[in-house]
Every structure is written in C-alpha cells, then in structure tokens.
Amino acid sequence: MGDISEQDQRRRRLAAWKASGRILWRGSADRPLGERLASLAADASSVHDLDGWTDVYGDGVVAELESRVADLLGFPAAAFFPTGTMAQQVALRCWAGRTGNATVALHPLSHPEVHEGGALSVVSGLRTVHPTSAPRLPTAEEIHGADEPFGTLMLELPLRDAGFVLPAWDELVDVVAAARERDAVVHFDGARLWECETHFGRPLKEIAGLADSVYVSFYKSLDGMSGAMLVGPSAVVEEARVWRHRYGGQLFQQYPAALSALLGLDRELPRLPSYVAHARVVATALAEGFGAPAPGAAGGPAVVPWFRVHPRTPHTHQFQVWLPYDAAVLNEAAVRQAEKSGVTLFRRWFEPDAGPPGVAVAEVTVGSAGLEWTADDVRRALGEFMARVARVAAESGPAD
After folding, report:
1. Of the candidates 397, 180, 377, the residue with the CA atom closest to the CA atom of residue 288
2. Do strands 343-344 and 228-232 pair parallel, antiparallel, or not at all (unpaired)?
3. Three-state SS annotation for the chain
4. What pLDDT is recorded for position 307?
5. Rounded mean pLDDT for each run of 10 residues along the chain, 400 residues in total
6. Which of 104, 235, 249, 366 could form a disulfide with 279 if both were Cys (CB 3.0 to 4.6 A apart)?
7. pLDDT score at 294
8. Rounded CA gap, 226 and 354, in Å?
9. What is each CA distance from 240 to 57, 87, 203, 236, 267, in whole angstroms?
10. What pLDDT is attached to residue 311?
C-alpha cells in the first residue's frame, strides 16, 4: 500500500468517489471547488432574491435563515453560528449563568467530549459529568441517580459515536422530565436532529420542543457548506449573540453558507425520511451478505468470521459496520473497488479509540444516490469488496 501522505490518500479517495457511478452517499465536500460554486450560483435564486444586497454581520439572507429555522423548530428566536462547536459552548455557557451551575451532564461519547479538544472546560470554564457510559443515551433512572447536581443536561440526538442511536420516544420524554425534576435545563445537540422524525414518529417541532434550546447543523445532513443554528428563548438567544461576538463568530458576510442551508432545507429535508427507510434496506442486505456462505463453499463458513451492523435496524440514515481487519486493509480495498469497478460501498474505515487491535469501524450513510441501490446491489458490492479485502490482506502479509 506504500507510504503516502494523508493528503495524497484523501485526494485519491475523492477522485475515486467522484468517478464512482454507484455510491451510497455523496458529501458536499466531495465535489471540486468550481463545481460547488457553480451549483450554488445556479440554484440560489430558487431560495432567495439575488438582486438584494448581501448580508452584513448577520442581516439579509442570514436573518431570513434564522427566522425560518426558528419557526421550523417551534422556538421564538434563532442565531446563526459559523460552527456547532461554538454554538453549543455559547448555549451551555448561557444556561450555566442562568442556573448558577456550570456543570453539564452529557454522555462521554458526545461530540464535546470526543471531538472538541476539551473546549467546554478549557475555553468556557464548564465542567462535565457522565450519567452513564453505556453506548446509548442515559435513562431517566440514571438521571435521577446522578451523584451530584448539574445545571444542564445535554443530549446528542442521535448519539453518533455509539452508532447514531436514539432512545424510544417515551424514554426521551422521561429523561427530559427527570432532568427538570432535578432543576436542570435541557439542551439538545441536534446536529443530526433533522433525520430523527422517522424513528420518533413525531414532527420536528414536537421533538425539539422537549428541550429548552437546540443546536442544528446544516452540512451534516442537509448538504450545506457550513454553519449551525442555535434556537431557544428570545432572551437566551440575544445573550448568545453577545457571546458569539466575543468568541469571534460575528462574521462580516456569510451568504454562501446561508444560501446553501436554505437550499438544504428545501431539497434535502423532505427527502430524509426516504433515506432513513432505505438505510434499513441497506443494513439488512449487508447483514445478509456478511452472513452468507463464502463463494464456492455452499453451506460452509460465512464470508467473514465476525461482523456487526449496528444498529441492526438503523435509527437514522446512518449506521456503523464493524469488521475484524486493520483499517488500512479495509480502506485500500474500498478505494480499489471504487477505482476498478466504479462502486463505492464503504468510504472510510477507522480504528476505534477503545477495543482490541485489528478491528475497524465504518460509518455508512445513505443519501439520494443510495436510493438507486437494491438489496441485491448491496450484496453483490459486498461480495466484491470482501474479495478485494482478502487480496489486500494477502499482499500485506500476516498480522503481527
């Protein structure tokens, strides 16, 4: 496989994904710069009057986006942020001031704990506690039984690093009630809240309405360029705007991100239920394919000695696949499949932070491109992928 830089590996992957005629999902960052700009210029007039003046420090198209999202999620006010990391730090800081308690209860696999370099404590002076370490959201009993007071309960919906998992609706209602019984406010990390309607069987307003404040992202599921929105009570959002400026988030112009977010609300949001439904088809086909006899061994051993599709029935349009191979082997097999056959089944494989060596996980996302795949397509692509895995593993030699 050779020693090549991560940047060169990324370019190779991007080229292979772009050339793939069959792929489960195309990310907004997968397209070349000129293509992305041309697409935005061609489509933006469908969501905003382009003869109007550009935004300056949050007016114009940015204010229009804020109004639309506040109404969509059923809150009186919203503030646009350049990143979700900033939006959530500001929200939790505002609630700490109001509750008089700077302790935030959240899951140890939540985004601020895993992907933000300790920013809640280092930058915002907040302290975190963990009601549970199980790979799921906390239960009402765990909230009631927490050892110490906390001012805010933050729930990541879905919990990405545990497998994009969600509680049942009644469980979520009970967890929120348990937090309020402890005089805590509730904040939803809703980076991927948009695709939760199918699992909960509730509209977005009802889901978001359980919380005191909610953050949502525009690029993770809605194909936006960047940006996040914090929604909540008017007084909290107004204070958040002050903190946004202090944190360096009062940008001069943000119209590309705002326009792409409006396009995502119009185009991708209505399609998400179909993506969730088809992710279940894909997950079932993968599980069937992994459990099938190896080629030429009718009734014999399965294609792999061990696998995990998690959750077996995805809660959203994203789920995890686990395999007992080094991530480097699986990544090489995946990119070769894309290059040689024009089929991208898996995008990236990672070695988890915890667990035995030689086990890797991939996040599978089903988007509009994935709707074209039948269950048979998935099983065929998986068979080809596993054949390539065997060849790459043989080339790599025995594991240490």
Report:
1. 377
2. unpaired
3. CCCCCHHHHHHHHHHHHHHCCEECCCCHHHCCHHHHHHHHHHHHHHCCCCCCCCCCCCCCHHHHHHHHHHHHHCCCEEEEECCHHHHHHHHHHHHHHHHCCCEEECCCCCHHHHCCCCHHHHCCCCEEECCCCCCCCCCHHHHHCCCCCCCEEEEECCEHHHCCECCCHHHHHHHHHHHHHCCCEEEEEECCHHHHHHHHCCCHHHHHCCCCEEEEECCCCCCCCCCEEEEECHHHHHHHHHHHHHCCCCCCCCHHHHHHHHHHHHHCHHHHHHHHHHHHHHHHHHHHHHCCECCCCCCCCECCCCCEEECCCCCCCEEEEEECCCHHHHHHHHHHHHHHHCEECCCCEECCCCCCCCCEEEEEECCHHHHHCCHHHHHHHHHHHHHHHHHHHHHHCCCC
4. 95
5. 78 94 91 91 95 95 98 98 97 98 98 94 96 97 96 98 98 98 98 97 98 97 96 98 97 97 97 98 96 59 84 98 96 97 97 86 97 97 96 78
6. 366
7. 57
8. 30
9. 15, 8, 26, 6, 29
10. 97
